[in-house]
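Hi team,

Filling in the usual template for the complex we talked about on Friday. All components are listed, including any nucleic acid strands or ligand strings, so the model treats them as one assembly.

SUBMITTER: L.P.
PURPOSE: interface mapping
COMPONENTS: two
RESIDUES: 829
SEQUENCES:
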Amino acid sequence: MAKNPSYQVKDLVDPSQKFASADLHHDRPGEEAILTCNDAVARGAIEAGVRVAACYPGAPVSYVIDALAGAAGVFPEMHVEWSANEKCAYETALGAAMSGVRSLCLMKNVGVPWILDPLASTSMVGVGGLVIVAGDDPGAETTQAELDFRNLARFGEVPVLEPANLQEVKDAVRYAFELSERVAMPVFVRITVRQGYSRAPVTLGAINHDRRRVAPHFVKSVTNGWTGYPAIGWPETGTALLHKRFHGEAPAAYLDLMRKKPTEADVLEAADACPFNAKSGPDDAPLCVITAGFAALEVAEALDLLGAAGEVAVVKLGMTYPVPPRLVAETLTRHAQVLVVEETEPVIEEQVRALASEVSGAARIHGKKTKSIPYSGEISSDVIVPAIARLLGRPSPLAAADAAHGETLDFIRARLPFLVGGQFCAGCPETAPTRVLREVLDDVPGEGIACGDSGCGFVAQYAPVSLANTFVCMGAGLGVATGISHAGLGKVAAVMGDSTFFHNGIVELINAVYNRANVLLLILDNKSSAETGHQPHPGAFGLTATRQPTKELSLEDVIRPLQVDYLKVVDAYDVKGLRQTFREAMAVDGVSVVISTGACALIVERARKDSRAKENA
Amino acid sequence: MMPTSSNLVVVGQAGQGIVLVSKILVTALHRAGQRVLATEYPAITHRYAITYAHIRTGDAVVSPRIRPREADVVVGLEPFEALRAGLLFARPATVVVTNDAFIRVEGEPNHLLKDPVAIDTVDDIVAAFKGRGIDRVVPIAASRIALDVIKHRGGANMVLLGAAFASGKVPLEQDVLEAVIVELAPRDTGPRNRDGFRAGIEAYAALTGGVV
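RESULT (copied from the run log):
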């Protein structure tokens, strides 16, 4: 349906100046520039000759697409998109890689769980040139779960690179494309939030224009093409044969019919050959630290503080799943003690422990399993220093500072205890709908339960709005409300944003209608993915990621055919209308949907400022 | 004498221009030929949530993250957030420059406080710092100065950057920093932001005589 786009001003969807640059397409190898991490990811992909890139926005990779969009304006063969969700992004990149062009997809923190099905279904089929840059959030600074996606990479047996500084981020992303083609698998690059929001000088490399311009091609074969169910094998299934081939277990009779890759042997070889593996310090040191990623920078700071760089060996791993087997085995034989320093889960440590069981006289291993390094939180040098000092048998140089800091934390907790919370911006179109819905829920008969969701509406769970009683993940509010209603607690409310509706909320709504749930869904339609930086989505702006005009879907027109029992659109600032509408919607037995419309106040304010600046000019 | 290394914390509430200050400092330090790293802690993108940035310069810097009690300067765009972050990252030698204007929600300096705390004025903030051994706290009327000079309270970030610069803890020449401010300030606000920066320098000097 062609509608008039809600906003035609391209500047309105240009949040990139904060965390991304628009001029990363210049071919100036050797030049040093200050880049953000999002810039570094984008530049690495541009240098590799990326052709297709896709992402659903979220920390810490929200701005890579903005940076790539600038390049797409210069390189006409590039396609850069905001996808409706992570699964769409992965599958877009996958299809492009199956067509022989290099492709990139980006996953926010807690984004990788959304792609596990297509990832696990394609990791063995032999597709290469496909890079997934994925975020993790040690300390859960920006997400609802402090998870470690490396465990999910292991689920699909997909290699993971972990760059340390921003130079390595850029170089690792570029290298990941080569690696992906060599091993014929997708390759992850892990970025933590602390990296993702950092800035540093980075030396640029050359851009591989030829690789970007390569002619796409596609292999149509049901035996060695791109299907996860290849038409070979008996009594084994073709799918099992893909897995068997990876681990060197496939019967010889079938090998000639199959692609030769991927194989575990190639991946392990690549792990040991990874150019981002590095050793420092004395070979005969009694203690060696095995580390990777951002934690490697903190280890360097810690050793500097301890003055121990000359007496402690450091093995920095560039690939952390799988770990380089020969390098780790050699390390385990060379040193008496090994301390594994990594962020969040003991993914490296568990692999090191497994390899140690095969090494005679292996080092004693310390890490998260021995409580030397914590699981939760950012693993900073002030955490690492005491751990190394203990193993060296000397006092920590930070002991006095740690004690003083501990006293300060005690003071803060005793004197300045904070409730967690937030507040909508002044003029926010989500304030009235959420406050009025809480008022109505408290007034009408029933339990007054509301289920929250991601997006700016996230803050509606806190005082002073106090609307939502649950928060799970994107789109889950309506699903949970559906379950509560089926449990017998009457009509239950759910609230989600417009971007979340297109992400997966529409499926939750279809399920609620089909299963005759008794729910009220409030969609806060602020005409953008506001929380992550006002990115366009299928229902906002009528613009693509590269600022090209496209169709803008109307929520009302999309929802009406779904046969909900009540549907009304209300002005987000019409308090009386909202109150009346919520009362009507709550009185309906079945699925009610209320759409409150009002563009994000920050967009409106930005438009006003832009307009004034143009007038002044 | 200008220091050769520095750890700078910039803190406030989401939307106060903290990331812009970080970008300006990093760009200027790099342009001045100094090794610089930074990392930013954007809030979950909602108002009244703490946001801060760490900017580190010096030859020995490897990680952009500043350890507790190792900030040389804390720049607070909102007094309560200056206290929140300042207590974590300041030590007695640290200079804290803070806005004197609170952001109030429903009359409270910070509505998220679990219990009433006797912090209603910037003097209470200064006293709270002093109670923890941090004496070098300079409250600046940054929002008011910004309104006068830049014609927008949102320019308080540039006023406070000027005050931080005046403390002598930011290893940069004034002309380098001013050129970057003019270059990176949004839209047509460059010259006004530079003037706000200069007003911050004057305000700091007027309050301290140039010494804290």
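MY TAKE: The CA atoms of residues 17 and 157 of chain B lie 6 Å apart. The helical segments of chain B are 18-31, 79-89, 122-131, 142-149, 156-166, 174-184, 190-208.

Thanks, L.
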